[in-house]
Amino acid sequence: MNLARTEIPQPNLNLKKQKSSGAGQINFGSDNLYPQECAELFRESSTLHAVISKKADYFSGTEIESTQEPYKNAKGYGQKEIYRRCSLDYYLAGNCYVMLHRVGGTVQMYHIDQGKVRRNAELSKGFLVSANWASYRQKEYKPFEVAEYKEGETKWSTIEGKEGEFAIYHIMDYEPSFDYYGLPDWVGATYYAKLEMLIGQFNSNMFDNGLFSSGVLRLSQEGLSPDETRRFVNDINAKLVGTEKGNSGKIIIFTGDQDTVDFTELTTSFEGSYIELKQMVEDTVISAASWYRSLSGLSTEGQLGNNQQILNEYQIAMQDIKRTRSLILPQLDRLASEFGLWSDDYEIIDEPPITISSSALNGAQVMAMVAVAQAVGAGTLSSDAAKEIYKIGYNLSDEDAEILANSLDL
After folding, report:
1. Which residues contact 217 (CB under 8 A, 6 or more apart)?
2. How far is CA 221 from CA 123, 247, 257, in A?
């Protein structure tokens, strides 16, 4: 892909045209490859990868506590892993799918990659699935039909070469005018995610091709034979030129009949091209995805290590995570309950990236704060001032901070 081909999908409004083209799928994007583009950007844009991965991690929690034996499907994936994979697809592309596989009276639930699924233009026939929609005309990637799961009226499908019957359940984000697919929150930053990928490729290419030279060396050839001159130049190149595998920092050498030898340095202020642009791209992608730098492992000048800020942003972010859970989990849990996969009585355990205690200062730091405050206040501290110091330093409640301040002679 390249920047010129990147697109923000538009809704499909002409089903009649869709039915007569391709494999009969409703295209997602003008070339029907928008989910694949999302997946490629996820791999190539470090910021998008960090944001989406972290949101999926927080969505599924650190563990799930349940009164029932943990569910494992035939592939070994449990309830938590299904939650994580579905949420990652949902955050990445605005859609997630689960495949229901019925053999006899037993039903298993599996996550299925959103890039493999398209809605059938014949809506009553559910979905079309292909392992490679870019080459779906090839025999090995020919799409096959799978029924859509609808409670009480599902017409299960069979798949050639596979035992049992199948149905797909679709969860999609709401997007105005989009009736068949959802779009991700960050869709407005699509070009910025692509730009981050291109910035990395550009800087890597600069090193690979060595566009910057260290200087120009002019050598006198007087008294040297052509073979001696060649060996002399080769020796300089072998010892002084650039990186081990690349040719960055090349010295340009001229030989001639001049009487003097001189070296002209070519200076450059090169700290990595597009540093400021990279910062803007990161901020745009993070903002579009309704996330925070501190929770994505990205530093912010003057704020890295501010544990209280991380905790505050985590609490705000979890409100958004819980809203998404309220959209996705009831649908998955209803399916699980219908087929006896896992109990409704479970709890997702959430843990912040740091603990409350780790955000507090240690005792020595707090006493240093007290000493400074005493010096500024001519040797004494009011009870209210002491209370605020202990409240901030130890992350105490008002009541506990007041008890501690009153118990010490300051």
Report:
1. 236, 251, 252, 253, 254, 261, 262, 263
2. 81, 25, 6
pLDDT tens digits along 300-332? 554 444 677 788 889 999 999 999 999 999 999
The DSSP bridge pattern shows strands 63-66 and 346-349 to be antiparallel
**CB–CB of 48/286 below 8 Å?**
no
* DSSP 3-state percent helix, strand, coil across the chain (nearest 5): 45, 15, 40
Can you read off the two tokens belonging to residue 260? 């003097």
- Mapped onto helix, strand or coil, the DSSP state of residue 121 is coil
| Interatomic CA distance for residues 246 and 213, integer angstroms | 12
Rg value, the chain, Cα:
31
Q: What is the DSSP secondary-structure string of 278-320?
A: HHHHHHHHHHHTT--SGGGT---TTTTT-HHHHHHHHHHHHHH
State the burial class of residue 145 (Cβ atoms within 10 Å of its Cβ: 0-12, 13-18, 19+). Answer: middle
Query: Model's pTM, two decimal places?
Result: 0.73
Bridging pattern class, strands 63-66 and 95-103: unpaired
